[in-house]
Amino acid sequence: MNRRTNISKRMASKTLGALFGIGIFLFGTLTKTNAQQDPQYTMHMFNTQVINPAYIGSQETVNFGFLTRTQWVDFEGSPQTGSFTLSTPMGRRNKTALGLSIVSDIIGPTNEQSFTVDYGYTFYNNYGSKLTLGLKGGVSNLQVDYSLLNLVNVSDSQFSENISLLSPQIGAGIYYNNERFYAGLSVPNFLKTKHYEVNGSVFASAEAKERMHYFLIAGYIFDINDNIKLKPAGMVKVVRGSPIQMDISANLYFNEKITFGAAYRLDAAVSAIAGFSLSDKAFIGFAYDFQTTAIKQFSSGSYEMILRFAIPRKGERILTPRFF
Questions:
Q1: pLDDT (mean) for 49-55
Q2: C-alpha distances in angstroms, 107 versus 71, 87, 104, 311?
Q3: H or E element: which one contains 50?
Q4: Rg over CA atoms, the chain
């Protein structure tokens, strides 16, 4: 094993330890009760830019990504999520990167779209390893159409006027990667925007308010043999007052072209994942969630599809495929 490999492994070990230490500290500070709000992704390992802006610093090509998710099929008002991401390295040394993230999330009568610009600055880049700090800034637009609800009292003044609210979004993240390992910690939105508040109706008091979401991710590529690779990965998502969400997955890659895998979401779902490299520039992936909660009585599962493109800049070419 050469010196570069040893240095990269030591750096990966120290970085992962630090990130998990920070994550445990953050999780220990969250105690109050509120619902989880950010969209959920089974193939988060292929859609990392949405949750961590620093991810774009790991890319050396121009990248496009499209994801669509239908959650809890057959369940009326179930979440429908779509995202588009774009990123490109900047400058000759690729120390900076710019990106764009667009997310649409529809749940029952609510429809929220967010538009953010992502920025990444790589302040460590040695022996094939990168450590990037990322920032995310933009706006979100929440719309609530009460006419889509089956109201018991249609004359209730609290539901007489639909909601349309534009609010800012500011987030940040840190991301480390080399050819085999990655780890990241991020908060996509620090702002606790209050969407609306109700007083004096059927409820004594009720409010809808954004809460900070903390994401901790990590993964590693193992060589089984010359033709097969194994990538275990994990994600921990925490929002104040909601149960900690843990996703654990393992994907096998065959001849760097085809991947099959499975994932488990704590107390929520078991997932099947498949992906195919259409070329060295294009990848398509599919996921299906089998619900493990009581909602499986009313739903036939959740579906997700992702399409990614990598376009080398002028004068460059893609030398090796990316597995994250």
A1: 96
A2: 10, 28, 10, 34
A3: helix 48-51
A4: 21
